């Protein structure tokens, strides 16, 4: 029998060191922007990548606000309500958007008023559904809206493809590419908001250009890179309270941690950094995230 200490060492994955970014440079032009990154990780040493991306695509990502704008949603719903009541001369309907929701009211004959209010409510629900799709937003939990990071990652895969291709160079297997993309993402500086709060979500190309992001932004970037190079590999966002990580549908190896969702098996990945958790490992508190949290596969 092995001594107890040696048995524990063999059964426990090595603790992750930190991925450290050594360089970030951007040369911007009217049509393209060349980004250069260099980083160092305990498992792989120094690495470097350079890629040229569309300046227009970068600016498009930068223009999207970092937080879901509830007032914009409520204003769209209020307009839909008012539009639904046009032509009803006997009823006067009011719909006012606030940060908390839409204040809806109507005056007129009782029967017509009820019908108008019902139609307005239905119109608002239809507009809400349309607005969420158009703005790539979903209901993460009841009453809480979030950007749909899985949808955004799939949508922006084509825009980050030049970088994914550069990260693929020098790797000989799909897993090696994913591991390199993971270390690259982990090395990008973590962004905190004022007083340590939430800094808001940055879409993949905005994050690359600004060279900073938080857990959901870096997870979306990593997934976009993997989707660009491995379009047939299942991928998923995993949400736990105040954190996001991901799943990659590659075959598990060695002591990989995995989870199942919709009859698919995913290997965990922690893109947030700077801790350089290898593919298949997570922070201790997240080792059951796929079972306790919400899993949202990429379309």
Folded structure, characterized:
This protein is α+β, with helices and mostly antiparallel strands and 299 residues long. It folds into 2 domains: 17-67 and 143-297, C8orf32 fold (Roll), CATH 3.10.620; 70-134, no CATH class. Helix content is 37%, strand content 25%. It has 10 helices and 12 strands. It has helices at residues 4-11, 55-63, 70-84, 110-134, 149-155, 161-168, 174-187, 204-210, 215-229, 289-292, and strands at 20-28, 32-41, 45-54, 92-97, 102-107, 137-141, 144-147, 235-240, 243-248, 258-261, 264-269, 294-297. It has a 5-stranded antiparallel sheet. It has a 3-stranded antiparallel sheet with strand order 1-2-3. The radius of gyration is 23 Å and the shape is elongated. Mean pLDDT is 91; it is low at 1-14.
Brief sketch in words of this structure:
This protein is of the alpha+beta class and 299 residues long.
């Amino acid at each position: 029998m092995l001594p107890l200490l040696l048995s524990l060492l063999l059964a426990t994955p090595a603790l992750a060191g930190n991925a450290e970014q050594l360089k970030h440079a951007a040369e911007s032009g009217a049509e393209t922007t060349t980004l250069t990154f260099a980083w160092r990780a305990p498992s792989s040493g120094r690495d470097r990548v350079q890629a040229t991306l569309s300046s227009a695509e970068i600016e498009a990502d930068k223009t999207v606000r970092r937080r879901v704008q509830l007032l914009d949603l409520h204003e769209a719903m209020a307009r839909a309500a008012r539009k639904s009541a046009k032509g009803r001369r006997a009823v006067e309907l009011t719909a006012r958007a606030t940060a908390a929701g839409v204040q809806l009211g109507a005056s007129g004959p009782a029967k017509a008023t009820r019908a108008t209010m019902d139609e307005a409510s239905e119109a608002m629900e239809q507009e809400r559904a349309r607005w969420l799709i158009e703005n790539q937003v979903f209901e993460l939990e009841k009453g809480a809206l979030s950007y749909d990071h899985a949808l955004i990652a799939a949508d922006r895969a084509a825009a980050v493809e030049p970088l994914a291709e550069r990260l693929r160079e020098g790797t000989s297997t799909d897993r090696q590419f994913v591991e390199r993309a993971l270390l690259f993402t982990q090395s990008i500086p973590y962004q905190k908001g004022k007083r340590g709060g939430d800094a808001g979500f940055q879409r993949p190309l905005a994050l690359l250009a600004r060279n900073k992001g938080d857990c959901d932004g870096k997870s979306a970037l990593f997934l976009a890179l993997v989707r660009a190079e491995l379009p047939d590999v299942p991928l998923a966002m995993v949400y736990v309270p105040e954190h996001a990580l991901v799943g990659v549908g590659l075959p598990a190896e060695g002591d990989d941690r995995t989870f199942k969702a919709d009859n698919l098996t995913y290997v965990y990945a922690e893109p947030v950094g700077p801790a350089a958790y290898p593919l298949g490992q997570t922070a201790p508190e997240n080792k059951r995230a796929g079972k306790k949290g919400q899993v949202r596969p990429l379309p």
